[in-house]
């Protein structure tokens, strides 16, 4: 974590939790006090307006984001959700290109670039998720893969505020976290690549999150790294106690 970028801690609930969990989640955050970092929770679509109303009611320093969006503005797309509808729910953020969307829904870089542009156009801050597979890592292809994923978006559109989440596919939900050194190496590489598109100042201002089996026991060593600006947390964010524990531990490192 570096002093000149505001830390960002994000919870990706994936297809978990229900309306009844929202209340207790918000209550847990009531004791957090001063807003020292940005905290964003990404629930499933039906919970977006429920969570935005609950954070307001409880006055907790949490913002809300969607896990995906459709790349078109609107139209006959049964089952899909538009950026405007997400914004209308009170959400301010959107994940784009999570590896589960890339792998399980066949999303490619061109589609993800369109989603990033659509999200930004609707006033949502896009969180672009990138990361290599185990085969790519073992084959020495990590930099080629992640820079390709980044270039596909930034070559097409460079939204004013963009967050990047580096999530090695082999570390997501597996319990296998990248070592702090390995994560730092890739984050530093990504920041250099960002500078190519955004300039030095733009790259220095852009938050790069790490994701992949982050938990209270490994977060401190990761957040110490200068180019890791926060986390995108799946499993460990479902329990507000462990998400809060991670946030507090990171605060102590700063
Ligand atoms: P995990 O998920 O923390 O459960 O590995 C992270 C993510 O997929 O964003």
What low-confidence regions span 5 or more consecutive residues with pLDDT below 50? none
What gyration radius follows from the Cα positions, in whole Å? Answer: 17 Å
Q: Helical stretch count?
A: 10
Biggest beta-sheet profile: 8 strands, parallel, barrel
Query: H/E element string?
Result: EHEHEHEHHEHHEHEHEH
The beta-strand count equals 8
- Helicity level: 40-55%
Determine the mean pLDDT: 95
Strand content: 5-15%
Bound molecules: 2-phosphoglycolic acid
* Coarse structural class: alpha/beta
**Could you give the order of strands across the largest sheet?**
1-2-3-4-5-6-7-8
What does this structure look like?
With 254 residues, the chain is α/β, with parallel strands linked by helices. Helix content is 43%, strand content 14%. Strands 1-2-3-4-5-6-7-8 form an eight-stranded parallel β-barrel, surrounded by five helices. Helix 1 (19-29) packs parallel to helix 2 and helix 7 (142-154) packs parallel to helix 8 (180-205). The longest helix is centred in the last third of the chain and has 26 residues, at 180-205. It binds 2-phosphoglycolic acid.
Brief summary:
With 254 residues, the protein is an alpha/beta fold. The protein has helices at residues 19-29, 48-58, 83-88, 99-104, 109-121, 134-138, 142-154, 180-205, 219-223, 240-253; strands at 8-12, 38-42, 63-66, 93-96, 125-130, 163-166, 208-211, 230-233.
Please describe the topology of this protein.
Layout: E1 8-12, H1 19-29, E2 38-42, H2 48-58, E3 63-66, H3 83-88, E4 93-96, H4 99-104, H5 109-121, E5 125-130, H6 134-138, H7 142-154, E6 163-166, H8 180-205, E7 208-211, H9 219-223, E8 230-233, H10 240-253
Bound molecules: 2-phosphoglycolic acid.
Residues 12, 167, 172-173, 211-214, 232-236 line the site of 2-phosphoglycolic acid (PGA).
């Amino acid at each position: 974590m570096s002093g000149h970028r505001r830390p960002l801690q994000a919870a990706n609930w994936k297809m978990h939790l229900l309306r009844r969990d929202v209340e207790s989640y918000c209550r847990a955050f009531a004791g957090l006090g001063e807003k020292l970092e940005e905290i964003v929770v990404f629930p499933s679509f039906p919970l977006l307006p429920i969570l935005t109303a609950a954070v307001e009611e409880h006055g907790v320093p949490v913002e809300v984001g969607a896990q995906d969006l459709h790349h078109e503005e609107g139209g006959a797309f049964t089952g899909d959700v538009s950026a405007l509808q997400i914004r209308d729910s009170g959400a301010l953020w959107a994940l784009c290109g999570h590896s589960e969307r890339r792998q399980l829904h066949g999303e490619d870089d061109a589609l993800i670039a369109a989603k990033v542009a659509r999200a930004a156009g609707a006033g949502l801050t896009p969180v672009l998720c990138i990361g290599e597979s185990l085969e790519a890592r073992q084959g020495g292809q990590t930099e080629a893969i992640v820079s390709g994923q980044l270039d596909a978006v930034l070559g097409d559109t460079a939204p004013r505020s963009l967050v990047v989440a580096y999530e090695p596919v082999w570390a997501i939900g597996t319990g296998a976290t990248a070592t702090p050194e390995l994560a730092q190496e890739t984050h530093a590489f990504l920041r250099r690549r960002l500078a190519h598109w955004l300039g030095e100042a733009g790259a220095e201002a852009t938050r790069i999150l790490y994701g992949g089996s982050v938990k209270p026991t490994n977060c401190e060593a990761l957040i110490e790294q200068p180019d890791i600006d926060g986390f995108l947390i799946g499993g460990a964010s479902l329990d507000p106690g462990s998400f809060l524990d991670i946030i507090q531990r990171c605060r102590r490192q700063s």
